[in-house]
């Protein structure tokens, strides 16, 4: 467009930016097109070809005068608009779960909380938003599901030189976003390597059965503690929240043999439990019987000792009395002995001086009958047994030899008593 264009002169009458009276604010797009046309005309005039082109396009058009004030006002408005847009680019929004990190010339300057924030526009300052409340999950030994195994990560060696397949998940959050972003280049990869290293160290210090069965929680807790220590040493700004062991089993190649070994171990434990139950039933009974026999033997011992001591004491007392009156003591002992002998034997009374008739008295029956009468309840009239009322007598001829022998025995007994009394 040349300076002789009629439109240039018409627009040159506008008030400093294409704004006509009694109209709204200028259209920025239209203002930009006008500015381009004006700048193009200025450059054409400086090259000296503005008049020829103006004559070619329309020699009958009247020449227009260039207004420098209009050009300066448009450029100022444009620059102001650019400055406003540039300053507005410094606004940013931080969510409640995020922390804003402000960088000045690429270096960390400050952290900002949630809300609408402003910083100096680029390239002076920039910002990064870091999610600090979200829980991140890292899978080791598998991806997505337990069936998608990663054997390079899952196979581990135990302390007893057995290989096991372990799959576990690590959950972590950020406790220091500055260290997480600026101290380590790839913090998530560092967590992956640290987790695998820690779990291999813990598994390598324990037996296979401990890791597979009763020690799962212990292994996970020890691995979590070791991971946190390593991450703190590297200043990753990461906090391990939970380590979960998803699966732990022997390799598939030896799974069948391992199942047989497990079944045999379970049978062994079952038999041990049965044996222990039987022992718990038998041992207390045997101990009770042994204690009873021990008490009985102790009682028998005390009884025998007491009896022996009583007999010895009685013998000493008799010996003392015998030393005082030997004849009396001897007669008394003889009488008591004969009383005991006759009370336990059947008696036969023989009349040695009679005509040979034998009289038999059943003294034991008479004594029993007398005892029955004494023990019977008292009534109005007590009946005397027939055995007590009548004494049966049996007479029979006794041979002379028996009578002579009895007489000789009686005389011999009397002589012995006379000798002892002397």
Can you walk through the features of this model?
This protein is of the alpha+beta class and 422 residues long. It folds into five domains: 83 residues, no CATH class; 41 residues, no CATH class; 115 residues, Band 7 domain (Tetrahydropterin Synthase, Chain A), CATH 3.30.479; 90 residues; 68 residues, no CATH class. The strands form four sheets. Strands 6, 9, 10 and 11 form a four-stranded antiparallel sheet that branches. A three-stranded antiparallel sheet has the order 3-2-5, with helices on one face. Strand 7 and strand 8 form a beta hairpin. Helix 7 crosses helix 9. The N terminus is likely disordered.
Instruction: Tell me the domain tally.
Output: 5
What would you call the structural class? alpha+beta
How far the N terminus sits from the C terminus, by CA atoms, comes to: 189 Å
Average of pLDDT: 75
Share of residues in helices: 55-70%
Subcellular location: Membrane
InterPro entries: Band7/mec-2_domain, Band_7, Band_7/SPFH_dom_sf, HflK, Membrane_HflK_N
Function: HflC and HflK could encode or regulate a protease.
Organism: Accumulibacter regalis
């Amino acid at each position: 467009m040349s300076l002789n264009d009629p439109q240039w002169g018409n627009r040159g009458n506008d008030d400093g930016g294409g704004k006509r009276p009694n109209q709204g604010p200028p259209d920025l797009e239209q203002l930009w097109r006008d500015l381009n046309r004006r700048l193009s005309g200025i450059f054409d005039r400086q090259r000296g070809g503005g008049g020829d082109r103006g004559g070619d396009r329309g020699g009958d058009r009247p020449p227009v005068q260039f207004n420098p004030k209009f050009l300066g006002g448009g450029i100022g408005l444009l620059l102001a608009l650019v400055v406003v847009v540039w300053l507005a680019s410094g606004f940013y929004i931080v969510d409640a779960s995020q922390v804003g990190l402000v960088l000045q010339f690429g270096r960390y300057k400050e952290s900002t909380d949630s809300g609408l924030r402003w910083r100096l526009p680029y390239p002076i300052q920039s910002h990064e938003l870091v999610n600090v409340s979200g829980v991140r999950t890292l899978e080791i030994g598998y991806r997505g599901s337990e069936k998608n195994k990663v054997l390079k990560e899952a196979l581990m060696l135990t302390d007893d030189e057995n290989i096991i397949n372990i799959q576990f998940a690590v959950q972590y959050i950020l406790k220091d976003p500055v260290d997480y972003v600026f101290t380590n280049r790839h913090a998530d990869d560092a967590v992956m390597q640290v987790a695998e290293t820690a779990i291999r160290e813990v598994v390598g210090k324990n037996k296979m059965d401990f890791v597979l069965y009763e020690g799962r929680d212990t292994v996970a807790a020890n691995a979590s503690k070791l991971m946190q220590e390593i991450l703190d040493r590297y200043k990753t700004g990461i906090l391990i929240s939970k380590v979960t062991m998803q699966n732990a089993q022997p390799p598939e190649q030896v799974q069948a043999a391992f199942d047989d070994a497990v079944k045999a171990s379970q049978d062994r434990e079952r038999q041990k439990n049965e044996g222990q139950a039987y022992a718990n039933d038998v041992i207390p009974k045997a101990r009770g019987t042994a204690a009873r026999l021990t008490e009985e033997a102790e009682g028998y011992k005390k009884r025998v000792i007491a009896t022996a001591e009583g007999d010895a004491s009685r013998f000493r007392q008799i010996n003392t009395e015998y030393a005082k009156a030997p004849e009396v003591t001897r007669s008394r002992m003889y009488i008591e002995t004969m009383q005991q002998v006759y009370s336990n034997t059947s008696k036969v009374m023989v009349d040695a001086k009679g005509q040979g008739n034998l009289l038999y008295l059943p003294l034991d029956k008479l004594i029993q009958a007398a005892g029955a009468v004494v023990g019977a309840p008292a009534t109005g009239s007590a009946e005397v047994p027939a055995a007590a009322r009548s004494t049966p007598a049996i007479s029979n001829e006794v041979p002379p030899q028996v009578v002579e022998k009895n007489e000789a025995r009686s005389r011999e007994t009397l002589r012995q008593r006379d000798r002892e009394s002397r």
